[in-house]
Known about the structure:
Blueprint: E1 6-9, E2 17-20, H1 22-30, E3 39-42, E4 47-50, H2 55-61, H3 90-97, H4 110-137, H5 141-146, H6 149-154, H7 157-172, H8 179-200, H9 203-219, H10 225-248
Antiparallel strand pairs: 1-2, 1-3, 3-4
Amino acid sequence: xxxxxxxxxxxxxxxxRGPFSVQQVADLAETGQLTPESLVYDAATEQWVTIxxxxxxxxxxxxxxKKLALKAKEIKxxxxxxxxxxPITVSDMLDAAEGRSEDTKGKADPEIxxxxxxxxxxxxxxxTLVAAAAEELLPGLDALFSMDPAKLIAHPLVFxxxxxxxxxxxxxxxxxxxxxxxxxxxxxxxxLMGFxxxxxxxxxxxxxxxxxxxxxxCSTIFVSLIPAAAAVAAGxxxxxxxxxxxxxx
Length: 249
């Protein structure tokens, strides 16, 4: 059969193709051009017959492919159940999340650390705003209580002090959405009061104002513990120094 010349065609074709060797016909079948229902010319009967009608020819053109059988292998688990294992409590779960358990030491959830830093920053911003408000309101308390427009105009910083108290109250309620306003206030206060201290030649006060304003601004943006703590220290220290100088004077 190896030297046999074959002519083939599909049932829907009117023209035959060939002559082909058996291997060439097998190659056509491999590419999907022929099927077992395709026709091959039988020279003995001078008729077109299907390939599948000749078992020997079909086996040569469409050889059965060997199937690979995979033997299932038993997999033994390395995890052994402990019948006497201690039940996990809510406290254990919290300790694990915060990196305080034996298995999670040094692996604290970064989101928890970020939340702590943000909370420290918020508390620091509140204290900084209160200290700034004290510095701004104390010199003009009489004008504020009298509500005399002339006196209020003479002490314009009381308005900034009221804004600081309002922002501190908002942050105390957990309104972190006020952070952009706090940042704007830090920049505005630095510009207004910085010009005033610069014009007066008050170097220490100007330095404290710069440090406090930068600390207030950064308290609202840092979410890492050390930078947040440094920002809080700068904000509270700077504004606290200004309030102390005012009270001491």
